[in-house]
Amino acid sequence: MPVRRRTVIFARATPPPLPELSNLAAGGTLPGILRQLSGLGGCTHPIRLDGHRTEYDVDATTGEVGRILRHLDSSELPAGQLLVRCNNRRTTRCAACSEVYRRDTFQLITAGLRGGKGTPEHVATHPRVFATFTAPGFGPVHNRRTDGRPCRCGTHHDQEDEALGSALDPDTYDYEAAVLWNAHAGPLWRRFSTYLRREVAKRAGLSQRELRDHARVSFAKVAEYQKRGAVHFHAVIRLDGPGGGETPPPAWATAELLTDAIGAAASKVQVDGPTIDGRAHAFVFGRQLDVRTIRSADFNDGQELTERAVAAYIAKYATKGAETATGALDRPLKFVAELAQLDISEHARRLIRTAWALGARKDLEHLRLRAWAHMLGFRGHFSTKSRRYSTTLGALRDARAEWRRAQAAANEPAPETTYVLAHWVFAGTGLSDAEAWLAASLEPAPGTEGEPTRG
Ligand SMILES: [Zn+2]
Ligand SMILES: [Zn+2]
């Protein structure tokens, strides 16, 4: 079956692909396909796999492989292939899967704040703050002022104004530094976390080495794009005892000490960058640093920052990429010429073009600026694995889960020893026209009822 990419957001409004549907109906595969599609939980860009999985009985005494217990062959499935969720974290790519990701992130952050899922409940009593780290300025941009005065251009921009965040004077805006800052944001954060431990130790009267026997600093962070296209970080930072979240922090560990140490570390940290055309770049955080103590829900009087608010905030931004700043681009560019066709702001176009141009330089090869041009130079927190590798691993994880579900449904007692032979090959992504139409006729996918977010 040919695999086509298709957007199903407006599938309800499109006419049904009648010939393909009537073929499926005539073949008697419609109910089966609907069953397969409902197993995707609303994923609109599933991974398609060709292959098979066979489970054999093994004789416990002789170790000999015996009869076939179960066999799954993708060609015998109603859709002709095994369909597994895409697991994409981005809202713009897959509403259903990003919703799962958002909920998982919410659970993960909440567990670190309140306990649960293996973390003890007393973490709620550990000092913890919610901190926002920004990028420095790269030139004046159109903005909304809090004092009610107009933007420097003389306009009162409304919240939806696309000009917000774009350069007042594109000819003097420092696009080069803006892109390179994003590209060094990860290393800057890593160095900051080292400095932070040093500053915490200093305030406790300990050496860095001694600190480990008394306390640990742990954090969860998320990157977000500001409208001007600069990455900034939101982080939950917590002080624990020497054994991490399992152990209570020492008496000197307070939210005030932590806040003070964060301020000192953030103002001192610097990462040296490349020298381009005689200009030596160095990267620091912007002066705007916001650190707030997180209170537990019980103390909330409507003013305090609560655990729930923090978890919801982080989870929301975990499902977004640079498209929140650029408006449209959520995947890598193959050719810079594609830029002309995209419905993005001129400011975003300049940032991407700058990343692309810098990406041609041999001395900046390690920053992989062309591959990450769509992220405005930022390589993201998923930089440790290549996209393709993770997609395939994720797909196989899902294939196993799919198999387990099928097994459970069969309601057979599991034999003690089995031998499994499986082979899966990536066959493509997406749904055919008829599958997409059928999928849209199932339950609405979580997250698709809301309006599209262009934060
Ligand atoms: Zn999906
Ligand atoms: Zn303006």
Offer a few descriptive terms.
single chain; 455 residues; alpha+beta; 5-stranded mixed sheet; disordered N terminus; binds zinc ion
Please state the CA-atom Rg, rounded to the nearest Å: 26 Å
How large is the share of residues in beta strands? 15-25%
Which structural class should the secondary elements be placed in?
A: alpha+beta
Largest sheet: 5 strands, mixed
Strand sequence of the main sheet, in spatial order? 5-6-4-9-10
Uncertain ranges:
1-12, 382-397, 411-415, 445-455
Range of helix content: 25-40%
Shape: globular
Distance, first to last CA: 38 Å
Extended strand count:
11
The count of helical stretches stands at: 11
Taken in chain order, the helices and strands follow as HHEEEHEHHEEHEEEEHHHHEH
Catalogue the ligands.
Answer: zinc ion
Query: How much is the average pLDDT?
Result: 80
Pfam families: RepSA (PF20199)
Protein name: Replication initiation protein
List strands and helices in order, with pairings.
Blueprint: H1 18-27, H2 30-38, E1 47-58, E2 65-73, E3 82-84, H3 95-114, E4 128-133, H4 175-203, H5 208-211, E5 216-225, E6 231-240, H6 255-268, E7 271-276, E8 279-283, E9 289-295, E10 305-306, H7 307-318, H8 323-326, H9 346-358, H10 387-410, E11 418-429, H11 433-441
Parallel strand pairs: 9-10
Antiparallel strand pairs: 1-2, 1-3, 1-11, 4-6, 4-9, 5-6, 7-8
The structure holds zinc ion (2 copies).
One zinc ion (ZN) is lined by residues 43, 45, 85-86, 88, 94, 96-97.
